[in-house]
Write a structure and sequence with these properties.
single chain, two-stranded antiparallel ribbon, alpha+beta, Arc Repressor Mutant, subunit A, four-stranded mixed β-sheet
């Protein structure tokens, strides 16, 4: 038996302006510039505004079909994103400069090798298959299949291995390794042959498991080494780089890039001054000739002109939404960053991590009145330049725990204290997690053992047994 029922649902439909604003809020400053340039290329109604003194006196106007009358004078058809003032001098700001990309460096070295076109193509494919840290973590069989399918080159395991050996000769040493052991062996073969290097090579070749497990007594016994000899060999190994890819570029892989801070925070005369650097963000206006077309067509009965007017009207609306979205992005980012600065005022004065208060997205959402999702979009991929360094906005957010005095402290402060405990421990007898709990208690932090283990993992600190040194 079929049964019908009515159900009332309330749904919210986002307006074009809201959708546009959400998309722009997510973009860091450089991508925003690219997005604006792209919009100007795709929407002929938009022009970069170069204001003159007469136009500055006029208020910005929106363009509407209802405005046009037969005897109307031509108004100034401008839709300006007026949160940027071209008269203001752009502030100076720092950038993170990233060197030549990892892939570009290897491809350049490949170009100096005397190889056939086929060999070059296979080696180039191998380079493109490397991970960010310089390792080849794909099987040779899968590479053979991929090269055949994607590069249209029928190859085999022997040829791929031969070209892999070529890549493994490139700088930085260790690149193209398939695991950590091979990575370290590729590097140590470049070292001058000494007793220490020979012992280190034997350790990596024949006793790698014991080395990673820090079973030093087994290594000394099996290789008939003294403690002094083992220490000398270990010192050679520890100088090697386990992540050769990060040597050239540990942030970006495709091309050289810069990170430009979205915000600039200065500390002057005892006050924090927040601003938003203008990074080639053009001011926008509606192109006059398109507005003229629209005005001319508004009083015409000709079908073609009416259709042209409808097209221009659509583009004008799109331009209006885009310019308003840029303005709303600016206001949203400014309000959110100011709330973060106010919340973390003491920290931003001197950059002392102990002054960094626990703060989550909800705290800033409540201060600004924005949704948590909006705050998340603002924080993502944005940076601020302060008088003590450049930081990702995500850096300032952390959960909190209570200390023994009942005061809430940030997890970042706890991790810093934990790191200090590990740094100051006796490396011949590293502290266990239980002992770290005791040390943290002595410092005034109430932390459970499972929390210590979690923070230790997040900090990349191995277990006590793996931290043991001779």
């Amino acid at each position: 038996m079929l049964k019908q029922s009515l159900e009332l649902k309330q749904t919210q439909k986002l307006s074009p302006l809201q959708i546009q604003t959400i998309k722009l809020i997510e973009l860091p400053i450089q991508e925003l510039e690219q997005r604006i340039r792209k919009e100007m290329e795709e929407n002929p109604v938009l022009d970069e505004d170069v204001p003159n003194e007469k136009e500055e006196e006029e208020a910005p106007r929106e363009v509407s079909l209802s405005e046009y009358k037969e005897d109307d004078a031509i108004p100034s058809y401008r839709l300006r994103s007026d949160n940027y003032n071209t008269k203001d001098e752009r502030p100076q700001y720092s950038t993170f400069s990233v060197k030549e990309s990892f892939t570009q460096s290897l491809q350049e070295q490949l170009g100096y090798r005397s190889l056939s076109e086929r060999q070059y193509a296979v080696a180039s494919f191998i380079i493109g298959s490397l991970d960010d840290d310089g390792y080849l973590r794909r099987s040779i069989d899968s590479l053979v299949d991929d090269i055949s399918f994607r590069a249209n080159i029928e190859t085999d395991e022997d040829e791929v291995l031969e070209m892999l050996k070529v890549v493994q000769e490139f700088e930085p040493a260790g690149v193209g390794a398939r695991d950590l052991r091979e990575c370290l062996l590729l590097q140590i073969r470049h070292c001058r042959k000494t007793p220490e290097v020979e012992n280190a090579t034997k350790i990596l070749t024949h006793h790698f498991h014991e080395f990673t497990s820090k079973h030093f007594q087994k290594i000394m016994s099996r290789m008939n080494l003294t403690e002094v000899e083992l220490k000398a060999a270990m010192a050679k190994i520890l100088k090697l780089n386990p992540s050769p890819g990060g040597q050239i570029d540990d942030t970006y892989t495709d091309q050289a890039q810069q990170i430009v801070p979205d915000f600039l925070l200065e500390y002057r005369d005892g006050e924090l001054k927040l601003s938003m650097p203008r990074f080639s963000i053009p001011e926008l206006r509606v192109n006059r000739k398109y507005a003229d077309i629209l005005m001319d067509a508004a009083n015409s009965s000709e079908r073609e002109k009416k259709e042209a007017a409808a097209f221009v009207k659509k583009k004008l609306d799109s331009a209006k939404w885009f310019v308003e979205a840029v303005k709303q992005r600016h206001n949203t980012l400014s309000s959110t960053m100011q709330a973060i600065v106010d919340y973390q005022h003491d920290y931003f004065v001197d950059g002392d991590e102990t002054h960094l208060k626990p703060m989550v997205l909800k705290d800033i959402a409540e201060k600004t009145g924005y949704d948590i999702s909006t705050i998340s979009r603002v924080v993502n991929s944005k940076y601020i330049e302060t008088h003590f360094g450049i930081y990702s906005l995500k850096y300032f957010f952390s959960e909190g725990l209570e200390n023994q005095d009942g005061e809430e402290v940030s997890t970042r402060e706890l991790k810093k204290a934990l790191q200090e405990c590990v740094d100051n421990e006796n490396k011949r007898k590293p502290l266990t997690d239980d002992e770290l709990v005791d040390r943290m208690t002595e410092k005034g932090y109430k932390v459970a053992r499972r929390t210590i283990a979690k923070y230790r993992d997040q900090l990349g600190i191995p277990k006590a047994r793996l931290r043991k040194e001779l």
